DNA sequence: AACCCGGGGAT
DNA sequence: ATCCCAGGGTT
């Protein structure tokens, strides 16, 4: 966020006069003198109108998404785990593959983690897959294979937080439970003109209170999905399409000309850059891959050993601890850049051909736990997008198309 | 409250 | 480049 944007956001928390009076209001909404001191009355006529209008709008325009074609709590839970911090369009093919490979929660529980991570490869936030697997086992063993039908028990499952519990409870079980995700936070911050940083504890409290106030007894799941659909397609972060909004006449931010100033967001820290060296050893079509320990970054995934270093020369001793003997002659083949939420990785890629007779195994140090010679295209284990880029760059031209393909 | 955890699409 | 996405867990 630029300094000026930040300043205007802060200023708007006190008073918003910039655009007021410059737009034609469809009707009068009295400006609230003390927004946080005077909470909107629960069960008001306005709340009811919002719920009604959004429900009807959703019935008319809702996108046809795979997880909207089922009432199976397992399928809906699976979609919600995948959708955490991940866009709808990205999730769809993964959701379809997962459901056909694991049609029931029992099938998922019986799978081994490498298999699950293989199907998850490329989706990101791999801890979700591991925790989801744990939850599947918990549902199978402790709940007899049926998802619990109340928000509190859902919330107790690993990987199910406040949002996901509200989503499964309302969408799969028709329970009047609220939910707040990124979309809903934006929509509600504008509808009610909530001026707190939506990531702060105070802001979250205000948002959940608003969501709980609004969610209707009738078809709460439809209402919650309507809020998210509105945020995804109309009430967008920039240039919201207010003229197409079914509740534009009930939106306080719009009435005050502030829709572009909300939600308020604290500035983010900038991400540090990290230089690494990856060593790719080929023996025919197999490559030496190490499995990362399940705790941290890329946990449980397999990759060519990678160490933090500024140059190949500097990397040799650390690479030895990852099972790459120092006598192997590595040659640089290029660089890969990979952006994560909290780090920018710049990886120098080096490779070598190793005769099959020289294949060895080694005791590995953290973050690796073991290693093996694998065909990276066999889809037996989890491989990150970063590792795929590295493999693609280092493989012989004839094999490049194979490695690049998902 | 701050930090960790991927990858990609829109602008 | 920047933002942010149907967030949750850990410290």
Automatic annotation (TrEMBL):
Domain HhH-GPD as annotated: residue spans: 82-233
Pfam entry (one): NUDIX_4
SUPFAM superfamilies: DNA-glycosylase (SSF48150), Nudix (SSF55811)
Molecular functions per Gene Ontology: 4 iron, 4 sulfur cluster binding; 8-oxo-7,8-dihydroguanine DNA N-glycosylase activity; adenine/guanine mispair binding; metal ion binding; oxidized purine DNA binding; purine-specific mismatch base pair DNA N-glycosylase activity
Name of protein: Adenine DNA glycosylase
Source organism superkingdom: Bacteria
Originating organism: Chondromyces apiculatus DSM 436
Annotated EC: 3.2.2.31
NCBIfam families listed in its UniProt record: mutY
InterPro entries reported in the protein's UniProt record: A/G_AdeGlyc_MutY, DNA_glycosylase, Endonuclease-III-like_CS2, Endonuclease3_FeS-loop_motif, HhH-GPD_domain, HhH_base_excis_C, MIG/MutY, MutY_C
Its job: Adenine glycosylase active on G-A mispairs. MutY also corrects error-prone DNA synthesis past GO lesions which are due to the oxidatively damaged form of guanine: 7,8-dihydro-8-oxoguanine (8-oxo-dGTP).
Family affiliation: Belongs to the Nth/MutY family.
Co-factor: note: Binds 1 [4Fe-4S] cluster.
Enzyme class, broadest EC rank: hydrolase
PROSITE patterns: ENDONUCLEASE_III_2 (PS01155)
Cofactor list: [4Fe-4S] cluster
Gene Ontology terms describing biological process: base-excision repair; mismatch repair
Catalytic activity: Hydrolyzes free adenine bases from 7,8-dihydro-8-oxoguanine:adenine mismatched double-stranded DNA, leaving an apurinic site
Keywords, in A-Z order: 4Fe-4S, DNA damage, DNA repair, Glycosidase, Hydrolase, Iron, Iron-sulfur, Metal-binding
């Amino acid at each position: 966020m630029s300094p000026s944007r930040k300043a205007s956001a802060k200023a708007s928390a006190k008073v918003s006069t910039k655009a007021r009076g410059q737009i034609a209001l469809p009707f009068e909404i009295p400006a609230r003198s003390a927004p946080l001191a005077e909470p909107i009355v629960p069960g008001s006529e306005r709340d009811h109108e919002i719920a009604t209008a959004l429900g009807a709008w959703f019935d008319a325009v809702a996108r046809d998404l795979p997880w909207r074609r089922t009432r199976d709590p397992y399928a809906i839970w699976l979609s919600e785990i995948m959708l955490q911090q991940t866009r709808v369009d990205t999730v769809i093919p993964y959701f379809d593959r997962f459901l056909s490979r694991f049609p029931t929660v029992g099938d998922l529980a019986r799978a081994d983690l490498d298999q699950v991570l293989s199907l998850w490869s490329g989706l990101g936030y791999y801890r979700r897959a591991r925790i989801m697997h744990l939850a599947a086992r918990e549902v199978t063993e402790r709940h007899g294979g049926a998802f619990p039908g109340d928000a509190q028990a859902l919330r107790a499952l690993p990987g199910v937080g406040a949002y996901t519990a509200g989503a499964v409870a309302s969408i799969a079980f028709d329970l009047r439970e609220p939910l707040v995700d990124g979309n809903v936070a934006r929509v509600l911050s504008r509808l009610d003109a909530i001026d707190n940083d939506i990531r702060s504890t105070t802001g979250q409290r205000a948002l959940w209170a608003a969501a709980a106030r609004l969610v209707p007894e009738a078809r709460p799941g439809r209402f919650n999905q309507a809020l998210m659909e509105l945020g995804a397609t109309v009430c967008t972060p920039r240039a919201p399409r207010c003229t197409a909004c079914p509740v534009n006449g009930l939106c306080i931010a719009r009435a005050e000309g502030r829709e572009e100033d909300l939600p308020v967001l604290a500035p983010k820290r900038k991400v540090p850059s990290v230089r690494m060296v990856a060593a790719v050893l080929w023996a025919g079509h197999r490559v030496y891959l190490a499995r990362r320990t399940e705790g941290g970054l890329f946990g449980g995934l397999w990759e060519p050993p990678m160490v933090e270093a500024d140059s190949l020369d500097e990397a040799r001793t650390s690479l030895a601890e990852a099972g790459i003997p120092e006598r192997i002659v590595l040659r640089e083949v290029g660089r890969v850049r990979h952006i994560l939420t909290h780090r920018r990785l710049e990886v120098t890629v080096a490779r070598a051909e190793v005769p099959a007779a020289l294949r060895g195994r080694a005791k590995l140090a953290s973050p690796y736990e073991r290693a093996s010679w694998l065909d990276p295209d066999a889809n037996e284990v989890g491989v990150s997008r970063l590792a795929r880029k590295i493999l693609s760059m280092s493989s012989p031209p004839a094999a490049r198309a194979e490695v690049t393909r998902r």
